[in-house]
Fold this protein.
Amino acid sequence: MNRRAFLAALAAASAALALPRAVASARYDFHFTRLKYDSGDWDVDARMPSNLITALVDYTTLRVDPNEHVIALSDPAMLRAPFCYLAGHKLVDFNPAERANFERYLRSGGFVFVDDCNHDIDGLFATSFERQMAQIFGANALQKLPNNHALYHSFFAFPEGPPATGFELNGWGDDLVHDYLKGIHVNNRLGLLYSNKDYGCEWDFDWRNKRFLAEDPTRFGVNIVMYALTH
């Protein structure tokens, strides 16, 4: 069962449980769903969703919802989204409802892309989020993704693995280029993609300046979405 089949199955189950109406609809193949959570700062990189949405329209044949949807992690409606994004700079400390939904979503076949805006492997977001994942899924659940993972070939080819960002070596952070991404697999399916590379900031550019970029950085975002929808 791929992610679209999961969405259909979960939507039917959610309807039976009388869960709230979700953001997804049959009109679109993709909806950008941002998760807000009570701790930390979730509302970062405000222009990133529209830039990623534009890239999906430009490069793929997906029917893409033009709007970003923000939904609370504690809201059961998030369980119906085929793709979710969670980011921030600060503490990640899920409350019981957030934790329950996060675990249920991943164990049911959902996909979450989590991006550390600190681009810092020892920063507050990284240490607190990784601690949360160890508590929920086990100490060794987060694993390095090999550079030949299907994610890097799901649409565009990235033979060297994850592309670096300009933010890894600038500003605050650990002054390192992180040469890998991590993930959590549930039932042999990647449910969580975790990045310290700060892709959100890399893709948070003024759309009017895109023509001056040597290479469109949101191309890797297209890979993430296409992988999430088809695996």
